[in-house]
UniProtKB/TrEMBL annotation:
SUPFAM superfamilies with a match to the protein in the record: S-adenosyl-L-methionine-dependent methyltransferases
Region (Disordered): 202-232
Protein name per Swiss-Prot or TrEMBL: Putative 18S rRNA (Guanine-N(7))-methyltransferase
GO biological process, one term: rRNA (guanine-N7)-methylation
Gene3D superfamilies, alphabetized: Vaccinia Virus protein VP39
């Protein structure tokens, strides 16, 4: 029952739309190099609604959130990012320069609430700890973009002043300032790259919030088939996978698979054709004591399964095993 409210929130289509629109706008303000992989931090990731947009745009991400119930829903929805249970007011423990950027949707204002009278619970202390450790976690140069709901100009001044003391440049960007419903406030921060000398992006204004047909600015980008649990189906192609693997290699991750003709969403079809051709026209392989050697060492991945299937002439069990356990 503890996760009933988070589940309802996540499944609400209006919440999904609002979260998606603000995430797209945050990415726009983040201004990452096009067609390049990046490792992003989603601050206050919740059940992974923003993370799905990061997936769609081809980014690798990690998310932090203080609510175990929201993270539980994210796990049930099988989000792609790594998840951390974390009170951001206590700061981060990531290695310096871990992330290429950070986004946060509707979270920053919660740091302005003092949980107790203890000095470490005061908003200035929590904000200082948050921004100082975040600055260290971001590479140079990079950006962090926060959409939040300040209740006063004093809150905006407090947040921006503490962020600047932590080493950030940047400031406030306001979209649709004259609209009560569409108005959105973003804190756009810079690490390095000229810092405060960088020019802030312009806020959106006028009638840009609604386009032809009454659709929101980013709504059409979300029109894609969904699975039964509400998660949008993956659109990762071979190029996306290659970029992700290259990013892992640059970051020193071990065990990254080599690129091959079996890389990408078409891998299963390619393997089926490859194996059917091999097995149907040379079924003696199933009864061979030796595993054929190929450049990709494909057969060695299923050597044990082949040994189990040698008593069968039908290659389908082996194909099934490979496609669903190796790919």
């Amino acid at each position: 029952m503890a996760t009933s409210r988070p589940k309802k929130y996540t499944k609400n289509t209006r919440n999904q739309q609002i979260q998606a629109d603000m995430t797209y706008r945050a990415l726009e303000l983040l201004n990452l190099p096009p067609d390049e992989p990046a490792f992003l931090l989603d601050i206050g990731c919740g059940s992974g609604l923003s993370g799905e947009i990061l997936d769609e745009e081809g980014y690798i991400w990690a998310g932090v959130d203080i609510a175990p119930s929201m993270l539980e829903v994210a796990l049930e929805r099988e989000v792609e990012g790594d998840l951390f249970l974390q009170d951001i007011g206590q700061g981060f423990g990531f290695r310096p320069g871990s992330f290429d950027g950070a986004i946060s949707i509707s979270v920053l204002q919660w740091l302005l609430n003092a949980e107790t009278s203890h000095p470490t619970s005061s908003p200035p202390h929590r904000l200082s700890r948050f921004f100082t450790t975040l600055h260290s976690s971001l590479r140079n140069p990079s950006r962090a973009v926060f959409q939040f709901y300040p209740s006063s100009d004093d809150q905006i001044q407090l947040i921006t002043s503490i962020a600047q003391k932590a080493g950030f440049g940047g400031g406030i960007v306001v979209d649709y300032p004259n609209s009560k419903k569409a108005k959105k406030v973003f804190l756009c921060l810079y690490v390095g790259g000229g810092g405060g000398a960088q020019q802030l992006p312009e806020g959106l204004d006028g009638e840009e919030a609604v386009e032809d047909g009454g659709k929101a600015r980013f709504e059409r980008r979300r029109e894609r088939e969904k699975t039964k649990n509400g998660k949008r189906k993956s659109i990762k192609d071979k190029d996306w996978i290659l970029k992700k693997k290259e990013l892992y290699r640059k970051r020193g991750k071990e065990g990254v698979p080599n690129d091959s003709k079996f890389t990408g969403p078409q891998a299963e079809a390619s393997v089926l054709i490859y194996f059917m051709d091999l097995f149907l026209f040379n079924s003696s392989i199933l009864h061979s004591e030796e595993v054929p050697a190929t450049g990709d060492c494909v057969f060695r991945l299923i050597a044990d399964e082949m040994a189990l299937q040698r008593s069968h002439a039908d290659p389908l069990p082996v194909l099934h095993f490979f496609c669903y356990n190796v790919l």
